[in-house]
Structure formats: C-alpha cells, structure tokens
Amino acid sequence: MLNIVKKHNIGDAQGISTKGANAAVAVDASERLRRSPSRVTLRAGGGPPPAPFPSGPRWVPRRRATLRRCPSSLASCRYMGAVGSSRVMCDNVPGLVSRQRQLCRRHPEAMLSIGRGVAAWTAECQHQFRQHRWNCNAPERGHRLLGRVLLRSSRESAFVHAISSAGVVFAITRACSQGELKSCSCDPKKKGSAKDSKGHFDWGGCSDNVDYGVRFARAFVDAKERKGKDARALMNLHNNRAGRKAVKRFLKQECKCHGVSGSCTLRTCWLAMADFRKTGDYLWKKYNGAIQVVMNQDGTGFTVANKRFKKPTKNDLVYFESSPDYCSLGTAGRVCNQTSRGMDSCEVMCCGRGYDTSRISRMTKCECKFHWCCAVRCQDCLEVVDIHTCKAPKTVASPELRRGQGSPPSPRWRRCSW
C-alpha cells in the first residue's frame, strides 16, 4: 500500500491530473491481485462477495475462465465477467426482452449463474433424448434447429420450456448457497428447532434457498411470455411452472449427528437440492405422459383434447400440436442400435434411409479382480466393435438438370384453397 501512495504523490508532483493518478492506483492494485497466488474463497454459509475497490474498475473474482464454456444461447456471455457497466453487458446478451434486460442490470452477477443453468439443462436435455431422432442438439448446430422445434407447440417444446426453467432455478439457488449473489444467501426461514419422525433437531448449515430461485426464475424466464395472453403463451407459462415445481419437489433433508462415540444426542439438519439428473428424469416421465389440450371457450385455460384423459395438473406438461417425425431435420451420422427394437433402433433412427457399419478398436477394462484390502485392479484389453451410423438422405436432381439443360424451370403458380 505504501508503494501505491508514493505513485500517487509522484503523479501530483509531476503535474499529472488527479484522474490519471487514480487510474494508476486502480491498475496497480488490480495487477497486484492478479499476480497474487492467493485466491478468494466465498463462505458456504452465504453472504455477499467481497466489496469492490473504492476507485477504478470493479474487481471480479477469478471466475472468468468458465465463460469460455458458455453455450451458444448466451453467445455474448464473455461480457458477463468483463469489467465495465452492467448496461453494456446486458445490452450485448442476445435474445433478451426488455424485462429480462432490466433484471440483468439490477442483478448482473446472476447472469453468470444463468449461463451455468443453460449449460446444465442443455446437457440434461441431450441425455434424455439421446436415443431419439431429435436429440436436443442445439449446441452442435446452433440454435436454428432448436428454434424450429420451439416454433411448434409440441411435447418436445413443452419439455424444453420445463427443463430450461428448472435449470435456471437450480443454478440461481446453488449460487445463493455458495455466496455468489448479493441479493440472496441461505434460506433464512430454516432457523431454530423443529421436529420430524426421528425426533427433534436444530436447523443449521446452509439450507438451499430454493424459494428465491423459483421467484427469480419466474420473473426472468416468464418475462418473454408476459406480453401475449394467447394460447401459446399460456402453454409456455404452464410448462415453465411445472419445471420450477419439479426442482422444489426433490428437496431433501440432510442431517448430521453430534454426540459421544457416534451417538445422535443432537441433530443438525438442512435442506439441499437433489442432483439435477433427478429433476431431468422426473420431467422425462412427464414428457412421456404429456397431455394434449385445447383452449377453452373463454380463452383463459385448457381443456383436454381427448375426453378420455384426465385434466392436467400443475405438475403435468401440456402441448397443442402432435410432434413431427423429425426425419426432415436429419439424423445423418447418428449412432443407432442394430439389435434394438426401440426408438434407438437403426430402422427407426435412420428413417428408413439405411446405415453404414464401421469397425473400430477401443480399449476397455477387463479381468477385474478384487484385492484384499481394498482395491479392484483391472487389465486393459483391446476390443473390436461394430458402430452403425445413419446414412444421409440422397439428393435427387431434376430430369432437366440430369440432361444438362441448364437451370430448372420456375414453378407455376396455382391457386391454393385453405
């Protein structure tokens, strides 16, 4: 700190402006922190992050390296860890509506957590659809393919809205518990003593503040649907709420015993979210049992399209349109199962276009033995397997092009009846 003060005095003595001296102080302080081997650790019990420096750019902990793995839906997330105005950062994130940009400017530190939530739900969506023609493959081919799916009110669109809303809840709640957000911390309601089937216990540790995560996700995710009250908006709002409720459904109580020789004379408990895979598996079951609905006469709710099915609850997924076969979107290069008769079979996955077979060699673990005590040792074995991949659709040229007669004739206009 003494060196910094000296630089400030030298700057004044040489006639350098006060603004330039303050900038030199901020740069020197930032350079010292960057070169320092120590790292800042955030308290697990919540609370705000370290206060920013009084002058110069806002100091951001070393979390910017994770931004390189941001999904393409937040293509401008490199701005989220940059030093500068929150307005500049939020204005450069594509796809946000006015209400979402307001929340971004009010909570700029939450955008990094939302980016993690997008990565989590995208990976979970790909896992659940890994054996289907449409496999939620937006990160590989950009969001054009996912956008075409979301244009329809199908059950795939219902699942995407539910899992994306759940991903934001999960990420924001986790950030609150880790003390990464200024606006929240651990659940403030879990204090004092309580009682369950095993007896009395004390609330302690850091309970996940899932109520805050639900409120934030509802304000942020539902902002795109607030403008319109049409059937599509009501469907998306219903599925968004089902996704948020799914995260809250899997809150579990974890406890730790205190006492002499392992006795449980005193228990300290807290609430924690389950792994996001449980939420994905639950929503996958809801996807398979999604209910097709139509708007009621007054336009305020849904009625089932088939009267034989029950009325959808707040936990069910709803959709309007039947799903396409997804063959037009293309399954070329997808790995299929030659012996299966399910959705991952080569006949279904490849849309009847056939498949190619290639033989590859890979290393696997074999001849594993248990050694006392306590390890399992395996050998590396070379395994030769056959991999089946779907063929690409054949492009058939018109007869005029095959005969070399130039460009094809322009189509004739005909009257269409709707």
TrEMBL record:
Quick one: where's region Disordered? 35-59
An example of a GO molecular function for this protein is: cytokine activity
Q: Which superkingdom, per the lineage?
A: Eukaryota
The transmembrane segments are none
**Alphabetized UniProt keyword annotations:** Developmental protein, Disulfide bond, Extracellular matrix, Glycoprotein, Lipoprotein, Secreted, Signal, Wnt signaling pathway
Question: What protein family is recorded?
Answer: Belongs to the Wnt family.
Task: Name it.
Answer: Protein Wnt
Q: Where is the organism placed in the taxonomic lineage, from the top?
A: Eukaryota, Metazoa, Chordata, Craniata, Vertebrata
